[in-house]
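Prompt: Have a read of the protein record below and flag anything odd:
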Amino acid sequence: MNDFDTSAQSTPSRPPDALPTFKNDAARDRYLAAYDAAVRDWPIACEELDIPSRWGSTHVIVSGPVDAPPLVLLPSFAGTATAWRLNVAGLSAHYRTYAIDVIAQPGKGWSHRRLRDRREYADWLGEVLDGLGLSRVSIVGCSFGGFLALNQASLTPQRVERVVMISPVGSFASQLWKLTYSARIKRPLVKLWRRLSGSKRAPGMTDLGVRPPRDTLWAALMATTMMPAFSAVGVINPAVLSRRELRAIRAPALLLIGDAERLYEPAAMARLARKRMPALETAVVADADHVAAMAQPDEVNARILRFLQPRD
């Protein structure tokens, strides 16, 4: 039984310069209002927890039967736990789901310092699992969350049952130049074009080559991030694991990529990933982009559940 007592938990107070750092009080209020609106419309019963660690506080949205197997959900960069709203009802019918805000990134959690490398991210997530009373879990991660899921299976194999990666960054091949282009070149150019054209609309995800999200409340939350609401966040360059590290991972792993993925060519990446990690299962999700779980929630849920459920 994966129940836990939150009464004894003591969340440390947020330092004024904690990451992520809001630009101002108004930006913070807009962001938190959008976050709370997404949680109020959560499709099933849930509870929100704040789990302390040596880095700060991690916000978690928990759903599903208390005696069901645990399933951790890690979002894309800046996506927050609310990125899983369209998936959580289907997954929580079979699992106790823990949707997590990645520390130091947009969300309700915070860190008093940056995490320096992938080992620290694994240590952080391990402490969150300890705080939740979970010794061993399966993990589903999207984008940066997919990298973190595989990283956890590599560095703390005793704690990971199975891994599902949805369009992970890093992991099998570097996308640093494309990520840099989107974050440091394309987005500023879009902002400049809007300023010159007199448009007051902030650059959105469609400007960066991502389809409009199906979840409008999550889109509203992401719009406050794009404004942006934050002056500083914490993140690392997602590492490419060596072939030796990948082949040493014991947890069964599934890689899902949307057929409209922009960071890399889906079929080619799936072939490369299988070459580097021969036991890996892969699939391309039709009519889905980088956030395939939101683009095709029923299809992605079905693939996840088939992969996670025990086999004879």
